[in-house]
UniProtKB/TrEMBL annotation:
Protein name: BlaI/MecI/CopY family transcriptional regulator
Domain of life of the organism encoding this protein: Bacteria
SUPFAM superfamilies given in the database record: Winged helix' DNA-binding domain (SSF46785)
Keywords on record: DNA-binding, Transcription, Transcription regulation
Similarity field: Belongs to the BlaI transcriptional regulatory family.
Upper lineage: Bacteria, Pseudomonadati, Bacteroidota, Chitinophagia, Chitinophagales
Amino acid sequence: MKQQHKALTKAEEDIMQVLWKLDKAFIKEIVDAMPQPQPHYNTVSTIIKILVEKGIVGFETFGKANRYYPLVRKDEYSKNTMSQFVKKYFEGSYSNMFSFFAKEEDISVKELEDLLKELKNNKK
């Protein structure tokens, strides 16, 4: 059964991007890996606690410090997020989404052809 994850805020996603890159990290390591201007340690700590409550992040304890790690793979989260995006904005149709981007000229004919090739290869 496909697990649905709670939607993440922009700040939560920013921290998850860093955590996916680091794999396991203490709060200070997460803060240090964030782009400038870096958020305050307490801000990151609070957001990490929310991610733990949402079941997106787990932790292991070393004395008084916790090391955090993702419980959801980046590709799994991306797939779920894209699926929700397509449902919300394009009536669940990837065809409608690609048509939209083609009309807006955000995607070229070559890019669409490359996507079709990739889809055909994945179906095999």
